[in-house]
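<instruction>
Derive structure tokens from the sequence

<record> Sequence and structure tokens follow
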Amino acid sequence: MFSSLVFAVAQPSDTAFVYTRTASPSPIKSNTKNKLSTPSIGHFAQVRLVQGASPTIGRNGLPLFGKKKKKDTNLGKSGQIQVKLLKHIAGTGSAGDVIMVAPAFFANKLQKTGSAVRISDDEVKKESEKEAQKDKEEKAAANDLKEKLDGLTLSLAKKAGPDGQLFGGINYKAILNELEKDFPKGCLDAKYIKISTIKDNDGKVLKHDIKAVGDYTATISLLKGISAEFEVVVTSD
């Protein structure tokens, strides 16, 4: 009975060269010490590789090129898994953080309490791109507001006594509310937009509300690293 060995040599194209060696079933005498030997006949043959099929060895159909197991990008070298925190966890991280934790810690604490979810590298990349786009849009909006606010004069009239002292102060919130009337609705509603400082006519920062008529300079924070200055003129009503 014939037996065969098949060796495949992969090529860059969709073909391969297969070497087949077939042993003769009939042993013949060797010239060396009259021992029996089995001659073999081998040759290379060019074959076509079919996409989705693996070349095989011998009659048992063993795979010559086995498929590599897909790497779990959610699994760290130490066996930890990648998760995104949904809540602040003392000693672990804040909401939004992407961290590596032990599977048992995730299953027994984070997952049970709804404090985290597993997240893949692809999902992290997509969220980063989405966040970057959001930051870009917020920065553009903040710079647009800055151009409109710098040098603006806001006039406020309030009852005051003969000495110019107001009957009730004007706080930061009141100034922001008056400012919003001059801009489209919702334009200044973001939580990070706020009046940060107010200086009097001498450039001194007030540590309290405006309590007298006069000219003031207000600084408004529009975004981290972006702010604008405008004038606040308080007159007697």
Observations:
- The first helix runs from residue 103 to 110.
- The chain is about 20% helix and 35% strand.
- The longest strand covers residues 226-236.
